[in-house]
Specification:
Blueprint: E1 3-5, E2 11-13, H1 20-28, H2 37-50, H3 55-68, H4 74-77, H5 82-89, H6 98-118, H7 121-126, H8 132-139, H9 149-160, H10 168-177, H11 189-200
Antiparallel strand pairs: 1-2
Helix pairs in contact: 2-3, 2-6, 2-10, 9-10
Amino acid sequence: MVVFGAEAGVTRCAWCSAHPEYIRYHDEEWGYPVADDQRLFEKICLEGFQAGLSWWTILQKRENFRAGFAGFDFCKVAALKDDDIERLVQDAGIVRHRGKIEAAINNAARAVEMTEEFGSLAAYFWSFEPSAQQQALEKGGEIFVAQTQTSRRLSKDLKARGWKFVGPTTCYAFMQAMGMVNDHMVGCASHAKSERDRAKFERPHRL
């Protein structure tokens, strides 16, 4: 990963140069801390749908996903039935992968259980946040990694709780997206902003 100038005086992580929509996502969402349960559920679901595909495909279809999955209100998603699954499988506006659709509905039910245990999804997910030192050790000096020891622990725990399509690579992409780690390049204009936001972010705790 390197940085590039999208306009005069601005540098960004190179991956967002592929499409203009990537730039907005990179500048406004990726790497900034999230505590809202509905947004967290959306992010982990979309990372699961992205497996084997490009993130550009998911961004293009995100509004359709939101419409099909009740805005990712996991209480509503958990209540979807077989006829809803068939409807979603026929929806050309989303990724029509039956296994991933069924996984999202299953994961919604598991999310409801998690909020009953931890008080919120945010409290659960943020409990896995690695320290800056731990993150550096896990990356071993690499600029980009697909998964880390923490993402493997998170994946293992989620699977033990009955979640699906939450492998360690998906979990690490989720950790990056929700701001649990700041993987903006040091030279990227968003790196310092993410650090400021993470510094003032109040980590949620188990109730």
